[in-house]
Write a structure and sequence with these properties.
TIM Barrel, 12 helices, alpha/beta, 9-stranded parallel β-sheet
Length: 274
């Protein structure tokens, strides 16, 4: 059993959903990333997603775009991100590490080389927002060869037929984009987002875990998506915003992150239906 599947299984036995945190690796430095990872995992993150800085992050809103620019200015490159994943995994061996990258990075490194390095650096899964499932056959085959999960995205506009195709090609979990548009915190979770979670949950019927991202930034958001059929919630922009607002005070940043994550994690407990 792969690490992500095992984590969801163990959380399910405890009646919890997964809390997945995202940070842009190298923002503002690789050393900061290691400290933020420690704080997030100590606070209660069940899995950690590290973003490889990319010059054209089309799925990301202003907060993550700024984080990406800071990391690129610091000289962070893909290999350094993979090496950072290994360091985080060594410090937290029970926390699956996921890499988010755009396909150009994978293409330039070569599929075999990329997934070999991913496995060597303890990466459990990969998210590639700009890789359509219809063009992913070779990618999927190489990922499976190296025992790395392929996590595909689905949006509210995705048809039921295409959802089934995404489920076929995904392993680890399916990443549901809760809203149209780019990443970034939202004040409230829209009814359309909840309906989408319910729809995917009914089609999946427990065959593969479902995690919801984009706009998830409050305990109430986490509680709602899990109550309506999701197995996990993904939080990124709000985490980076806390760091950005306190970028000159490392101790304050880490303290605020731990507190924020603890509040979110409490909301992953599934309600007991009598």
């Amino acid at each position: 059993m792969r690490a992500i599947e095992e984590k969801f299984r163990d959380l399910g036995k405890r009646g919890e959903g997964a809390l997945i945190g995202y940070i842009t690796c190298g923002d503002p430095t690789l050393n900061h990333t290691l400290k933020m990872a420690d704080a997030l995992i100590d606070g209660g993150v069940d899995m950690l997603e590290l973003g490889i800085p990319f010059s054209d992050p089309i799925a990301d809103g202003p907060i993550i775009q700024r984080a990406t620019m800071r990391a690129l200015k610091a000289g962070v490159r893909p290999l350094a991100v993979l090496e950072t994943a290994k360091k985080v995994s060594a410090a937290h061996p029970n926390t699956p590490i996921i890499i988010l990258t755009y396909y150009n990075v994978v293409f330039r490194m070569g599929l075999e080389n990329f997934f070999n390095l991913a496995r060597e650096n303890c990466v459990s899964g990969i998210v590639v927002p700009d890789l359509p499932v219809e063009e992913a056959s070779e990618y999927k085959a190489v990922a499976d060869k190296y025992d790395v999960d392929t996590i595909f995205l689905a949006a509210p506009s995705t048809s039921n037929e295409r959802l089934r195709k995404i489920m076929e090609f995904s392993s680890g979990f399916i990443y549901l984009v809760s809203v149209f548009g780019v990443t970034g915190p939202r004040e409230r979770l829209r009814k359309e987002s909840v309906d989408f979670v319910r729809r995917v949950s009914s089609i999946s019927n427990g065959r593969i875990p479902i995690a919801v991202g984009f706009g998830i930034s409050k305990p109430s958001h986490v509680r709602s998506v899990i109550a309506n059929g999701a197995d996990g919630a993904i939080v990124g922009s709000k985490i980076i915003k806390i760091m950005e607002e306190n970028i000159g005070d490392e101790e304050k940043t880490l303290s605020k992150l731990r507190k924020f994550i603890r509040e979110l994690k409490k909301s992953t407990v599934k309600a007991i239906v009598l």
